[in-house]
Structures are given as structure tokens and as C-alpha cells.
């Protein structure tokens, strides 16, 4: 709890910082106009000093003739705060988030075990759950995500974990390629997120059914299955997490890919903080998603693998969707007998 | 053991930019990369002061701390240097640096900005002293020749001081006592968590 | 499986394309920090810290340095 | 070819044993990697401490380059402070610069330009070979062809239009020797139209100061300012123009807690360090100075003893000053009386006080009068001739003082001998040529426009056309130009084309010229204005870093610069080019009769020896090349404040650094030079002196000689005139002369031996005797508060031609139209027209100009240096925040600055700042290459375009010339600024 608070504080501080910059620059401009004629004044006696300037603005900015706006900032002590965040808090936060997620899932697995398929009359019959394009979109996004997550974590943990193992030279090379992959695979990832939004938006609009589903804890607790459409509330949450975090990561990421294009140093620091915090939350969330999609539920992988799920399973987990699909085609997409996955 | 620092006496600095071009001259730094720069505060108004700024070679340097590949190291003279072989050009050091010291050969996108470059306190890099490759990657190594950074040595009004921190603080103190004013050791609080008490 | 393979191939393809585009719009500092009144020579060969060892990659020690 | 610094030996391998064993260092790469591999954070340093302590001890003796590095010393070319440049040269390549700690002038330091000066030599933007414009295209030619064709063309022009049709524009970047042979060449060619940059920087200073107390130069030195308790900097921004001088100023300010008063229309970088800043309206220097003097006289703060002993006619000044009560001063200049009272009291009471000025005072239609007023302020308070006092005039180029001394001036032969017959005869003797032959080289001018005809002798003695008016000499109808024809050819050596006002007129003039020759390291604006199609030549000249020779810094110290590297590309030095031209014209044998020429290149040392043989009038006689070289070798021995070496030093004992002129007598006399002019507290042999008795002994019954004032140890304890044989005979001192000296004097004097003076005695005997008897050879006179030979004997305020205050013109009009220096000066008509047409309403902003620290002069050289160019990439106009807001102008956007003449306009970037007051705009004058909004880059020969181009400030400057020297008005005109 303390950690989240600190994170929050850092964020708030950063926001206030940016706001303060705007505010103080106006007051400074006014002063400029008043102090127009220095006739009769003693320029030596009134020299500016650090303390005075820091009272006006958290960073000291002046005039410089080279056409590089960044260079006009003389001192920005906020770099120290950024460093505090990145070195003191971020490793612990991310370790906690990632390891915590793994631990929680482990516990869940330990207590709940693998959720096995319930055998029923329709077991063995198949229904197409995701068509090829959907699966393509999913896999493109997810494979990129895994690389992005690993290369992203490398920024935090690489020097702590990998570098001592393989040595600086090798690590330098690895990190260089990790950086390249992070920058370049961000693009298919962003496209993937956009594709998923288009493909699955209409099935992910939250509705009343979701409330019941949540009230029933999604059926994870107990053995009663709440009704659900194509996506149950849990999946919707994953969807919206991917969309929300994905776009936040994209926006902040783009700002970082094009440094200083739209913002100054304070903005860049803020982008970094946001990107990192959301990133680790994203990783934790996706870990849960991966767990449910693979280990957590029997035969889960094939849902995205082949796209076809067991009709019986579907009727249990997504009864409303199955009804809808079967209404579309009288026969329904019934295929041969097979092992049945779920997600 | 000397603890090398920079101190810019803003009451002497006249924004002549000698430090900037001396640096270019000594290390053949290309256009667009300014290891040192001069910023004028309160421009055109009474109290105007100019301050020459480069890497301050901080105590517990933030750049070194945030570097994801640990390419920084601190020499026995407390000069903060880095290895361009390991650097991945990520730019985190620029975000952390309170003084805007890190520079990148390419501007535009983060992906391939090249290796970070910054003031070396005229102390070269990790390669062996006076080697061609050291010179080409980091510039010349005056410190190993027993000389101080050229920017400070050539400062037109001797505003920019370089050398052992205690010695230059002493010089500055004496100046302030002599003349009766002084706007302080710019950046020292941020860089060294101390200031020159008069 | 097919969708997966295609996804990987496409991801790599888009990534490569992105790399190419990004690198194309990448500008050297000497181009970026230049205004309309200037014509700057390419610093490679004239300046240090650029040129053959631009990226800091260790050069072939056998290759004689430009003299 | 090695072009950049690289290590001498083969690069070391990265075998760890070698790396650690060979060069111990703070932390070697391997160790560092090991450390960072083991520990995540900051422990790397801890692991290396032991290594580091070893390094310090062992690294001391090592060198970055190796044993084959040679050190060469030359002088920075970018201002007059005279900073020593220490170059590291390997295999003939300039690979590095080191601080010149031993120089007492710069003590290791440099400004941006000096710290970047190495690039000048290896710049890829240099002019690489001679070029000729053929039908609008630049074509490469050989040196032989260039000299041949140019020689033929000027000979043709001379035959057709006379020698005055060719204009010889020299350079303040010449060495003394080059300036001297260039002036000599002009004399041999037969014209007095030989000029250089001093015309547009300190010509009014030279005229004003010389007319006050004798010599037109800085009286003290940069170093001596350390002694001052009060300094007024009026119309100068040394923080940008002479940054290294600020080392001395600020030290003085700190050590003496000196008052540093800056009087300027602009809150400059210098003003930022002032203890008091006085903002004035441009062009009201005289009211301000008189306003200060008003308080001084009112309160009796003047130095009455000094005035009575050493100043002539101060009462005439009192009458004029009485008109400038605080109310009138404030009405005209905008400075409140209370502030001026404070300044006046400080300057008069907290002594020693010095007055520093620069082009803010000189570049006006009243430039000479301004300078005179400033001198009078020094005189009234007794602030001349002592340490910490004086008129410290900061000059602009490396050798602008020397080039002025060497007579690159339309009014004088070398060393201020003037153009009178005696001067010509003196130099004819030094040059060993017939006076009559020299005379035959000059032109006969027919009577025209009501003016009488001029004989050859009269032409010889008539001042030439000033560089500020060369294009008027081309454009004006021939009857208005007081010579046979107008100017037909420009021979431009080391001089930018954009530094003279009224650039649009210059462009017209360029188009009309029959021949244009630009001899310069860079093509310069002259070559790139797109005015010409043919008959244009570019000759690549090396920088003065690539040649030997002496330079005279602003403080009159001569420093010997040695060639650092051989001239780059096909460039040649000035000596060789002048020699080749002379040879082509058949003048070489006569001109270089007594000068050693090695492989077609005259030897600098030998030229200096000839200067020594003739330079008596200014004390350029004692500075032999050997002595100057000894000074460069022994720089470290000279004191920082007194500039003097200890007396017991075998080589330079007792000398002042650089033997600041006057350095009397022959070199063997070992006169130490004169650090502080007119200092009566020292024996003349120790560098003392008196005011020069240059203007006679009495006027209207009032003596012009000093009263009860004389230099220490003088045998004559009162004022005395300058020494001639007549005076010597009267005193009986002629007996002191040796037989050889007498023989020489007799030979010079001929029938009239009495007329031989301290300045024309080639034997040096008169000066030797003077020194022995402790008297100053030039006499002991009074400084003149009233200089009756000048247009305004006592300075009076005159509004600028284009004034923002037309209401003041009736009371303070500019001088009536008159003719000066072969040209009409119609300032009065222009001013009247401007007032009548209400120009000040359409152009409400005062436009002033000045220098940036990164650039120098016309800026071709410095704008071609990427290290400097990066720092100032755009021509800009400083505009006040209020004016910008009124016009909707944002910082950094393009604006049009338009001027009242020629529909002139310039497209520049706005720099919105409070450095300038409301209603004032400032532009730097270093830019060119854009013309009225067009980029002219393509007109430069391929690859020689400077890195940075921009509008020249002189696109919009206007008419206005000082009546004495033809100085242009750059500091006060009017403009309008509009957003693009």
C-alpha cells in the first residue's frame, strides 16, 4: 500500500510540476515588461541567484543562441526525482508487480487447481470461436507484447540480473538489440491493439449481464456458471485493460520514440514514469490472462490456436453467445470431435 | 585524492562562449553536439547573469544510476565517464541529468540516436590513454597529461574554474570576500549536495 | 498455428518497416540544430566522435586511421 | 596528409596487461567492466581508487602527441587585445591549441573566436586558388595568370584615367610589415586613396585624440585598467567585442572594488557587470559628457592644477558646458540629472579613473567631436598620464592600431608624417628613391566644377577618398569627385564589403567598376553580391596565422607572430602578393631595394627594419625584430599590471611588454617602450613622457607649452617645443651629437640643417640626446581643449542625420553641406529633407548596430568557422518587448527591418529582449549573404560560401559622415520593423 501511495505521489508531483511551469512562466513574463528600463540601477547588486530562481520555477531556464530548446534549461533538479523513481521505486514496484502476480497465480493454482472441463452432452462438438484474422491479430499483438515486456523489463532489471551473468560487453549488445526490438516491435503491437479494438469492440461493451457475472465471481468460486455473451466480464476486463493500457503505452511510448517533439524535459520524465508504471501493471495483468488461457483452464491454448472450442464448454461459459451463433446458422458450426479448449 | 569539479563564477562569466569553442577545438566535437554551453539568465535585465554549464561530474551521478546498461563509471578523480561500447543511446541519462549534459549524435527518434556523448572533463574514456581510438570516441585526454579541461583553462575572464573541488571553492570564496558579492556556485547543490559557504 | 506463424511474420515485417521509416526520418544533430541561414558541411571526416566510429563500435585495429 | 589531431604512435592494443601496464589510469576499461559486472551501483569507483593514485604520479610527463610536436606562437587575429595563440604543430599540421599562460595580456585565456582560431587555417570554406569571373561564372586560374591580367588591367586604367582611378583598400589584419609595404605600394603607384578598416572603426578616435594631446592611440593598456578605481565605458561592449579585456576590467573591479559605469543605449553583456548603468539615446554622447562636466564644473570637482599646467583653453569648454544644465541634458539624452551627478562625482573624485570607449562613440557624424569631448572629460579631471587613468580606446582588429600607424590612411604616410612635402621627402630618403620620381607618379587634375586645377605635387599632398565613400567615388557624377575621374577599380585586400553603410549604393557601385580584385582568405561580400559578370578576380591570401610579422595591439605593444603552418591550399601571404604585383608593374626593384626577398617573398624581419629606420615620429624605431622575438620568448617575465620585465633580465630587462610605442631611438638604445603615454612621473628612459607640442608654441598670445610640468628627470623644467636642430643649437645640445650623427643630419638638412627634427633625423641622434637629457623629443606641450583646426573646435551637440527627435534639429542641426576628402558631404540637406518629410513618423525606431562575441567585422572568416557559426546561426534584430508586442512580433520569427533610404529592407529574425529600450532596435553587423530577403549563397564560388549567411545590417543604414575623417554613421539611424 505504501508503495502504491508513493507511486501515486510521484505521479502527482510530476503533474504539479508541469502545471507549475506554465503558471510561473506567465508571472515571469509580466515581470519582464515591468523591469524594462534598468536606467540608474546597479546591475551588480541585483544579480540573480539559484535560490531566487528556484522559487520562481522548479527548473532554471535562460536564453541560449543555439537552436536547441533543451539547452536553454540550465538546471533541472527534477532529474534527481526522476532518478529516485527509476532507481529506488521502480525496480521494487515492478518486481512486486511481476513476482506478485506470479505468486498470486501460483496460490490460485495451488488452491483452485486447474479448472477442468465439465463433460456434457455437447462435449466433443466444436464451434468456431475466433476466425483466422482474429487469431492473427491476437498473436501479433501478444508476441510483440512478450518481446516488449521482456525488453522493457530489461531496462529495469537487465543490469541487475543479466549483466552480471553475461558480462558488460555481451550485455551491451543484448541491450542494444533489446532496445531496437522495443522500438520497432512497438509498431506491430500498436497496430495489433488497434485491430483488436475494431474486431472485438462490439462484443466488449459492458452490460447488465456482466454485473451478474461479477457477482457470481465469474464461476471461479463455487461451481455455478453465470451467463455470458461472447465475452464474459472477466474477458471484457482483459480487453479493456489491453485497450486502455495499450493505448496509454502507445501514447507515452510515441512521445518517447520522438523525444522532445511535443514536450520538454519535464514532460519526458512524466512520460517515462507513466510508461513504466502502466507497463508493469500491464505485464501483471497479462500474466493472469496468460495463466487463465493456458495453465489455468484445461486445454485452453487451442482456443486461440485453432480457433475452435468445444460446444459444451461454450454453452457453459458463453451460453448467450452460443445461442446467438446457433440462431445465425440453424445447424451451427458443428465440427468433428476433438479435444476441447477454452480460454 | 583530488575530487574534480567545475565552478562557474557567474559574476565573471560574460557569455563569451570561449569554453564552448575551446571544447570543440580540443575534441573536434561536431556541429550539433555541445558538451558545454552558456545560458544567460534574466537576459537584458538588471541582474542578468550567464552561466557556463556542462556535465558537473556529480557526486552519486544520476545518469550513472538510471543507466539501464551501467555504462557509466566514476574515476578516482571523481570524473564521471561512460563507455560508448556499452551505451545503447536510450536517453535516460538525459532525463535524469540535472544539467542537460548528455548529447546524442542523431536527433529525431529514440531508436537509433547513436551513442551518448558528454563532457569527459577532458579525461578521455575507458580505452587506454592517448590511444587513437580513445581520441576518436571521447576526445583528448588532458587529465592524463596533467592538464585541466581546456574550457576552464581558456575561460576569458577566468570565470570557469576546474580542478580539485576544495581548491576551486577556496578560490571562489576568496574572490567573493575580496569583491563583496557573489551569486553562488551554480549547480553545486544539485550536483554535489553542497554549496560554497562564504 | 498458421495464424500464429503469419502473425509473427507480419510483426517482424511491420517492425522492419518501422525501423526503416524511423531511420529514414532520423536526422543528425548537425542537421537538426541548424537554421535556414546555414549550410553545414557533413562533419564526418572533419570532426571527431563521428565518422567511421560514429556509433562507438570498436573499429578494426588493422585498418589504418585516416591520416 | 594528417589533417586532425591523432596520436603519434600506433594505437595501443586492448590486451589487458598492456593497457594496465603501459598506461596506468584511474580505471582501465577491463577493470571497469569487471566492476560493473559484479556490482550494480556505484561501487565501481571504490574498486579503482588504488589504480587512480598511481596514475597521477606517472602521467605527468606524458604528452598526447609525442615528441614531434612543435609549439608556435602567433597572435589572435580577431580583436586588438593581442592574445597570444599557442599552436601545437605536428608534421606541418596545426593539430591543437594550448592556453598561452605566459602571455601577460591574455594569460592563457581566449574568447570564443580565439579558442576556435585553429579552424581558420583548415577551414574547408577558404578560397583555395585564384579565380576569375568569366561571364558570370567563377573559373579557376593560376597565380601567374591572375597577376598578369590584373597588372595589365590596372596599368591600362592608370594610363587612361590616372592613378587615382584605382582604389587600394588594405586591411587591419595585415601585419605591420604588410600594411607598411601596402602603403608604400600606394605611394609608388601614385595615389593617397589607400585605406583600411580603421576608417570605419576608430578613425575619429585617431583624429580626435591626436588633435587633443598628440598621438591617436590608447594612452594606457588593458592591463593597466587593473589600477583604476573608476571606469566609464561609453559606447563600448568589451564583454562581446574584447572579452579577454574583461579579465582585466573585472579584476580591477573586484580587487579595487572599482566603480564600473556603463553608458550605452543598450543593456549589454558588459552592462550586466556594471555597478551603474546609464541608458542614453543613441547619438547624444556630447550632451551626456557635457552633462557630466556640468556637475564637475558646478561643484569644483575638476583638477585645477592639472588644467592650469597641462591643458590649453579649458575655459572655452566651460562656456559650452554651461549650456548643458541637467534639464537640457535630460530633454536631449533622456538621462536624469541625479544619475549624471552621481557619475560625475564618482569619476572626478574616485581616482584614478579611466574612460573606455569604442565604436559607440566613434561611428557617428559627430565622431571626432565625441572623442574630443571624452578626452576633455579626462583632462578636466586630471585623469591622463597616470596608472589607472587615461583614454583606454579599445580597437577592433588584431593590427588595426599597427595598420593605422603604418599609414593605411588617406591622410598620411606611414607613422603619421602626414602628406606634406617634408613627409614625402622623409620617406623618399628612407626608401632611397627620388622625391621627384615619387611626385611624377601622381596625377594632374584638371579644373572642374569651379574648383582649381591640381598639380602633381598638390595631388601628392591631397588626402584620398575614404573607404566609406568608395562607391560614391564610383557613382557620383565625375565633376563632384575631386580627382581626374571617379574610381574605376577596387583592389580589396582583407576587407569585407558589408561593413560600410548604404550597401544598396555599394551594389550599384560594384556593377559600374571596370575591375574588382578581392585578395582575401575568403571571397567576402564583395564577390558575392551578384553585381558583376566579368573583370572580377579572387586571390587567395593566407591568414596572418600563416605568416611571420609583428602586430600592434591596442595598447601599442608590438608582438611578433611566427608562421604556424605554411599557407593552406594555393594561398599566398600579403608580402608575396604585393611583391608580385610590384614586379609586374616594374616597381619591385625600387620598392624592395633595401628589403631582403627570399624566393620571391619579402622577409618580414627586413621590412620591420626599414620601418625602424623611418619610424621616428611615433617611436617605431626601437622595436627591432630581434627585440620583439626576445619578448615572445620571455613572455612569462613581464608583470601582469605594469607589463614590465625585471631590470636584471639579460634579454628583456626593464622592457615593457611588446615595447609599446613610442620606443625611442635605435634598438641598441634599449628604450623600454612607453606603457603609459604622457606620464610625467617617469623618466623618459623609463617610459615617461609629456603631452606632445604638436600645434606650435602659442596661439593668440596664450602659450601652448606646458607650465611647471615636465617628465621626471628632465633637464628642462618647463614646457618646451619639439626638438629640431635649431632648438638643439640654441640649447647647445648639438655638441652631444656624434660625428656620424652630424654627418647624417647634415646630409638630410642640406642647406636648411636647422629644420631637421627628432622625426626626420635618420641617425637617431636627436632622440638619443633627448633621452639622455630626460626630455621628450616631441616637446612638452599642453593638451588642447580647444582644437581650433577642427570643424567644431569645442565639441557641440549635433542631432544625427536621421533623428527620432526632429524637434531638436532646429537647435542642434548637423553641419552645413561642405566638401571633404574629395567628396561632397551633404548631411545637412539629407537631415533637412528627413525632417521635412517626417521620416521619424514612418520610421519610429532608432536602429543601432554592434558586435557579437562569436563574429568579427564583416564576418566572412568567422561565419565560415563552424565552431563559431553554430552559436549564431541567424541574423537578428533586437527589439524591445514593448515594441514587439505593439507589432505582434514573437521572439524568433522573421521580420522586415526597413530603412528610410533606397527602399531598403532586411529580412531578419526578431530577438525580443529588454536589452534595448523602447523605440530602439539593434542589429549585429557581421552578417551578409542575404540581400533584401534573397539568399545569395549560389553566387559564392562553389564551396566557399560561409556556413552562416544573413542580411547585412548595412542594407538599411543611411547617409551621414564625420566631417574630419569621413567616418560613417552606423550607430544611429531610423527604421521600421514589421512582422513578415
Provide an overview of this structure.
Chain B: GO terms for molecular function: 4 iron, 4 sulfur cluster binding; metal ion binding. Chain B: Residues 4-34, 78-107 form the 4Fe-4S ferredoxin-type domain. Chain B: InterPro entries: 4Fe4S_Fe-S-bd, 4Fe4S_Fe_S_CS, ET_IronSulfur_Cluster-Binding. The complex is a heterotetramer of chains A (343), B (198), C (67) and D (980). Chain A is mainly α. Chain A contains 11 helices and 4 strands; from the N terminus they run ααββαβααααααβαα. Helix content of chain A is 66%, strand content 3%. The longest helix of chain A is centred in the N-terminal third of the chain and has 35 residues, at 78-112. Chain B has a single domain, classed as 2-Layer Sandwich (Alpha-Beta Plaits). Helix content of chain B is 26%, strand content 15%. A two-stranded antiparallel sheet of chain B has the order 1-7. A two-stranded antiparallel sheet of chain B has the order 2-3. Chain D has 6 domains: 24-59, no CATH class; 69-122, ADC-like domains (N-terminal domain of TfIIb, Single Sheet); 131-201 and 400-594, Rossmann fold (3-Layer(aba) Sandwich), CATH 3.40.50.740; 203-393, 3-Layer(aba) Sandwich (Dimethylsulfoxide Reductase, domain 2); 698-784, no CATH class; 806-979, Barwin-like endoglucanases (Beta Barrel), CATH 2.40.40.20. Chain D is built from 37 helices and 34 strands. Chains B and D meet through helix 1, helix 4, helix 5 and helix 6 of B and helix 1, helix 2, helix 3, helix 4 and helix 11 of D.
Amino acid at each position: 500500500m505504501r508503495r502504491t501511495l508513493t507511486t501515486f505521489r510521484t505521479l502527482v508531483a510530476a503533474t504539479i510540476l508541469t502545471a507549475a511551469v506554465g503558471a510561473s512562466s506567465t508571472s515571469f513574463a509580466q515581470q519582464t515588461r515591468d523591469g524594462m528600463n534598468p536606467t540608474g540601477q546597479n546591475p551588480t547588486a541585483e544579480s540573480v541567484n539559484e535560490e531566487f530562481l528556484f522559487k520562481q520555477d522548479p527548473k532554471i531556464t535562460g536564453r541560449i543562441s543555439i537552436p536547441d530548446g533543451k539547452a536553454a534549461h540550465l538546471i533541472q533538479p527534477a532529474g534527481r526525482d526522476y532518478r529516485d523513481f527509476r532507481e529506488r521505486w521502480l525496480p521494487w514496484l515492478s518486481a512486486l508487480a511481476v513476482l506478485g502476480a506470479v505468486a498470486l497465480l501460483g496460490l490460485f493454482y495451488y488452491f483452485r487447481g486447474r479448472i477442468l472441463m465439465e463433460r456434457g452432452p455437447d462435449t466433443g462438438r466444436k464451434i468456431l470461436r475466433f476466425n483466422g484474422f482474429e487469431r492473427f491479430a491476437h498473436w501479433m499483438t501478444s508476441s510483440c507484447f512478450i518481446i516488449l515486456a521482456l525488453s522493457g523489463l530489461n531496462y529495469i532489471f537487465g543490469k541487475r540480473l543479466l549483466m552480471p551473468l553475461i558480462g558488460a560487453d555481451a550485455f551491451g549488445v543484448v541491450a542494444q538489440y533489446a532496445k531496437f526490438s522495443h522500438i520497432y516491435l512497438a509498431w506491430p503491437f500498436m497496430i495489433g491493439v488497434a485491430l483488436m479494438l475494431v474486431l472485438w469492440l462490439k462484443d466488449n461493451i459492458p452490460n447488465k449481464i456482466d454485473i451478474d457475472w461479477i457477482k457470481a465471481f465469474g464461476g471461479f468460486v463455487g461451481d455455478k456458471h453465470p451467463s455470458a455473451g461472447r465475452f464474459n466480464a472477466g474477458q471484457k476486463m482483459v480487453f479493456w485493460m489491453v485497450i486502455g493500457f495499450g493505448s496509454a503505452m502507445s501514447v507515452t511510448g510515441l512521445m518517447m520514440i520522438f523525444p522532445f517533439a511535443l514536450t520538454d524535459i519535464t514532460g519526458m520524465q512524466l512520460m517515462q514514469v507513466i510508461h513504466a508504471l502502466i507497463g508493469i501493471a500491464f505485464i501483471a495483468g497479462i500474466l493472469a490472462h496468460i495463466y487463465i488461457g493456458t495453465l489455468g483452464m484445461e486445454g485452453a491454448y487451442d482456443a486461440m490456436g485453432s480457433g475452435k472450442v468445444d460446444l459444451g464448454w461454450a454453452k457453459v461459459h458463453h451460453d448467450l453467445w452460443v445461442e446467438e451463433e446457433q440462431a445465425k446458422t440453424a445447424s451451427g458450426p458443428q465440427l468433428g470431435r476433438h479435444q476441447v479448449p477454452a480460454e | 585524492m583530488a575530487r574534480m569539479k567545475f565552478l562557474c563564477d557567474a559574476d565573471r562569466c560574460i557569455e563569451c562562449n570561449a569554453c564552448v569553442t575551446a571544447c570543440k577545438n580540443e575534441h573536434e566535437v561536431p556541429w550539433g553536439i555541445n558538451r558545454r554551453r552558456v545560458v544567460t539568465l534574466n537576459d537584458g535585465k538588471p541582474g542578468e547573469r550567464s552561466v557556463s554549464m556542462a556535465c558537473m561530474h556529480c557526486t552519486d551521478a544520476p545518469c550513472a544510476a538510471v543507466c539501464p546498461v551501467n555504462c557509466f563509471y566514476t574515476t578516482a578523480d571523481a570524473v564521471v565517464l561512460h563507455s560508448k561500447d556499452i551505451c545503447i543511446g536510450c536517453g535516460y541519462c538525459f532525463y535524469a541529468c540535472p544539467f542537460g549534459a548528455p548529447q546524442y549524435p542523431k536527433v529525431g527518434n529514440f531508436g537509433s540516436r547513436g551513442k551518448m556523448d558528454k563532457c569527459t572533463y577532458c579525461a578521455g574514456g575507458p580505452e587506454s590513454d592517448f590511444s587513437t581510438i580513445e581520441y576518436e570516441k571521447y576526445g583528448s585526454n588532458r587529465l592524463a597529461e596533467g592538464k585541466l579541461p581546456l574550457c576552464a583553462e581558456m575561460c576569458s575572464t577566468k570565470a570557469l574554474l576546474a580542478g580539485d573541488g576544495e581548491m576551486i571553492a577556496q578560490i571562489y570564496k576568496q574572490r567573493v570576500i575580496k569583491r563583496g558579492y557573489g551569486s553562488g556556485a551554480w549547480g553545486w547543490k544539485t550536483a554535489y549536495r553542497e554549496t560554497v559557504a562564504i | 498455428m498458421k495464424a500464429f506463424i503469419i502473425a509473427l511474420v507480419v510483426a517482424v515485417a511491420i517492425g522492419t518497416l518501422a525501423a526503416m521509416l524511423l531511420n529514414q526520418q532520423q536526422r543528425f544533430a548537425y542537421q537538426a540544430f541548424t537554421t535556414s541561414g546555414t549550410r553545414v558541411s557533413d562533419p564526418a571526416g572533419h570532426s571527431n566522435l563521428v565518422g567511421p566510429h560514429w556509433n562507438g563500435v570498436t573499429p578494426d585495429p588493422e585498418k589504418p586511421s585516416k591520416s | 596528409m594528417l589533417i586532425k589531431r591523432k596520436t603519434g604512435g600506433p594505437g595501443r592494443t586492448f590486451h589487458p596487461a598492456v593497457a594496465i601496464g603501459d598506461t596506468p589510469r584511474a580505471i582501465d576499461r577491463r577493470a571497469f567492466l569487471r566492476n560493473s559486472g559484479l556490482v550494480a551501483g556505484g561501487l565501481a569507483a571504490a574498486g579503482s581508487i588504488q589504480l587512480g593514485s598511481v596514475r597521477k604520479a606517472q602521467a605527468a610527463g606524458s604528452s598526447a602527441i609525442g615528441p614531434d610536436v612543435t609549439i608556435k606562437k602567433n597572435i589572435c587575429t580577431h580583436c586588438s587585445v593581442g592574445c597570444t595563440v599557442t599552436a601545437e604543430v605536428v608534421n606541418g599540421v596545426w593539430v591543437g591549441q594550448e592556453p598561452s599562460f605566459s602571455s601577460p595580456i591574455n594569460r592563457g585565456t581566449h574568447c570564443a573566436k580565439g579558442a576556435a582560431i585553429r579552424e581558420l587555417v583548415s577551414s574547408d570554406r577558404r578560397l583555395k586558388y585564384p579565380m576569375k569571373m568569366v561571364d558570370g561564372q567563377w573559373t579557376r586560374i593560376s597565380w601567374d595568370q591572375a597577376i598578369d591580367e590584373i597588372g595589365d588591367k590596372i596599368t591600362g586604367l592608370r594610363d587612361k584615367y590616372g592613378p587615382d582611378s584605382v582604389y587600394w583598400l588594405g586591411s587591419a589584419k595585415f601585419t605591420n610589415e604588410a600594411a607598411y609595404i601596402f602603403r608604400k605600394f600606394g605611394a609608388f603607384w601614385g595615389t593617397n586613396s589607400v585605406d583600411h578598416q580603421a576608417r570605419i572603426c576608430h578613425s575619429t578616435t585617431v583624429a580626435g585624440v591626436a588633435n587633443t594631446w598628440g598621438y591617436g592611440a590608447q594612452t594606457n593598456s588593458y592591463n593597466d585598467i587593473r589600477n583604476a578605481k573608476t571606469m566609464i565605458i561609453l559606447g563600448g561592449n568589451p564583454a562581446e567585442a574584447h572579452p579577454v579585456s574583461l579579465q582585466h576590467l573585472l579584476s580591477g573591479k573586484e580587487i579595487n572594488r572599482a566603480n564600473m559605469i556603463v553608458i550605452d543605449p543598450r543593456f549589454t553583456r558588459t552592462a550586466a557587470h556594471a555597478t551603474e548603468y546609464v541608458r542614453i539615446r543613441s547619438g547624444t554622447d556630447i550632451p551626456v559628457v557635457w552633462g557630466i562636466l556640468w556637475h564637475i564644473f558646478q561643484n569644483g570637482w575638476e583638477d585645477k592644477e592639472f588644467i592650469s599646467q597641462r591643458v590649453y583653453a579649458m575655459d572655452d569648454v566651460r562656456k559650452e558646458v554651461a549650456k548643458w544644465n541637467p534639464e537640457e541634458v535630460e530633454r536631449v539624452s533622456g538621462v536624469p540629472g541625479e544619475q549624471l551627478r552621481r557619475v560625475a562625482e564618482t569619476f572626478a573624485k574616485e581616482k584614478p579613473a579611466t574612460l573606455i570607449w569604442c565604436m559607440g562613440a566613434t561611428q557617428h557624424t559627430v565622431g571626432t567631436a565625441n572623442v574630443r569631448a571624452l578626452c576633455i572629460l579626462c583632462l578636466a579631471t586630471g585623469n591622463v598620464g597616470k596608472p589607472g587613468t587615461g583614454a583606454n580606446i579599445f580597437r577592433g582588429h588584431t593590427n588595426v592600431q599597427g595598420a593605422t600607424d603604418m599609414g593605411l590612411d588617406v591622410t598620411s604616410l606611414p607613422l603619421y608624417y602626414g602628406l606634406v612635402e617634408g613627409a614625402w621627402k622623409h620617406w623618399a630618403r628612407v626608401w632611397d628613391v627620388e622625391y621627384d620620381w615619387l611626385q611624377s607618379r601622381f596625377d594632374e587634375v584638371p579644373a572642374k566644377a569651379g574648383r582649381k586645377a591640381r598639380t602633381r605635387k598638390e595631388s601628392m599632398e591631397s588626402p584620398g577618398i575614404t573607404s566609406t565613400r568608395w562607391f560614391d567615388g564610383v557613382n557620383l557624377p565625375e565633376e563632384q569627385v575631386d580627382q581626374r575621374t571617379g574610381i574605376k577599380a577596387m583592389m580589396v585586400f582583407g576587407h569585407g564589403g558589408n561593413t560600410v553603410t548604404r550597401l544598396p549604393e555599394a551594389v550599384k557601385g560594384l556593377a559600374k567598376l571596370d575591375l574588382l580584385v578581392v585578395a582575401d582568405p575568403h571571397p567576402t561580400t564583395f564577390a558575392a553580391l551578384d553585381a558583376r559578370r566579368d573583370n572580377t578576380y579572387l586571390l587567395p591570401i593566407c591568414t596572418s596565422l600563416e605568416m611571420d610579422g609583428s602586430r600592434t595591439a591596442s595598447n601599442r605593444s608590438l608582438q611578433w607572430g611566427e608562421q604556424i603552418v605554411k599557407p593552406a591550399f594555393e594561398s599566398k601571404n600579403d608580402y608575396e602578393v604585393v611583391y608580385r604585383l610590384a614586379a609586374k608593374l616594374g616597381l619591385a626593384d625600387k620598392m624592395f631595394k633595401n628589403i631582403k626577398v627570399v624566393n620571391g617573398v619579402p622577409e618580414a624581419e627586413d621590412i620591420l627594419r626599414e620601418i625602424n629606420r623611418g619610424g621616428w615620429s611615433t617611436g617605431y624605431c626601437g622595436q627591432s625584430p630581434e627585440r620583439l622575438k626576445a619578448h615572445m620568448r620571455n613572455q612569462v617575465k613581464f608583470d601582469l599590471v605594469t607589463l614590465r620585465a625585471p631590470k636584471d633580465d639579460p634579454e628583456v630587462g626593464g622592457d615593457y611588454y611588446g615595447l609599446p610605442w613610442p620606443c625611442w631611438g635605435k634598438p641598441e638604445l634599449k628604450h623600454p617602450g612607453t606603457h603609459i603615454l604622457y606620464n610625467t612621473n617617469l623618466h623618459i628612459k623609463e617610459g615617461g613622457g609629456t603631452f606632445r607640442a604638436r600645434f606650435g608654441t602659442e596661439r593668440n598670445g596664450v602659450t601652448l607649452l606646458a607650465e611647471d610640468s615636465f617628465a621626471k628627470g628632465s633637464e628642462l623644467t618647463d614646457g618646451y617645443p619639439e626638438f629640431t636642430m635649431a632648438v638643439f643649437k640654441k640649447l647647445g645640445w648639438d655638441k652631444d651629437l656624434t660625428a656620424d650623427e652630424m654627418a647624417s643630419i647634415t646630409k638630410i638638412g642640406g642647406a636648411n640643417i636647422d629644420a631637421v627634427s627628432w622625426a626626420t633625423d635618420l641617425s637617431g641622434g636627436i632622440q638619443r640626446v633627448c633621452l639622455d637629457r630626460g626630455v621628450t623629443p616631441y616637446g612638452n606641450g599642453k593638451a588642447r581643449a580647444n582644437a581650433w583646426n577642427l570643424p567644431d573646435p569645442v565639441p557641440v551637440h549635433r542631432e544625427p542625420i536621421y533623428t527620432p527627435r526632429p524637434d531638436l534639429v532646429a537647435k542642434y542641426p548637423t553641419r552645413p553641406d561642405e566638401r571633404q576628402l574629395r567628396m561632397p558631404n551633404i548631411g545637412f540637406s539629407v537631415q533637412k529633407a528627413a525632417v521635412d518629410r517626417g521620416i521619424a513618423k514612418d520610421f519610429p525606431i532608432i536602429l543601432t548596430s554592434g558586435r557579437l562575441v562569436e563574429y568579427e567585422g564583416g564576418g566572412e572568416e568567422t561565419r565560415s568557422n563552424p565552431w563559431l557559426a553554430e552559436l549564431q546561426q541567424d541574423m537578428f534584430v533586437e527589439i524591445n518587448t514593448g515594441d514587439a508586442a505593439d507589432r505582434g512580433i514573437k521572439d524568433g520569427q522573421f521580420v522586415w527591418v526597413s530603412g528610410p533610404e533606397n527602399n531598403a529592407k532586411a529580412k531578419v529574425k526578431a530577438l525580443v529582449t529588454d536589452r534595448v529600450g523602447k523605440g530602439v532596435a539593434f542589429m549585429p553587423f557581421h552578417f551578409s549573404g542575404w540581400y533584401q530577403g534573397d539568399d545569395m549563397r549560389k553566387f559564392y564560388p562553389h564551396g566557399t560560401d560561409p556556413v552562416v549567411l544573413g542580411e547585412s545590417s548595412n542594407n538599411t543604414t543611411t547617409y551621414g559622415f564625420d566631417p574630419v575623417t569621413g567616418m560613417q554613421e552606423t550607430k544611429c539611424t531610423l527604421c521600421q520593423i514589421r512582422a513578415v
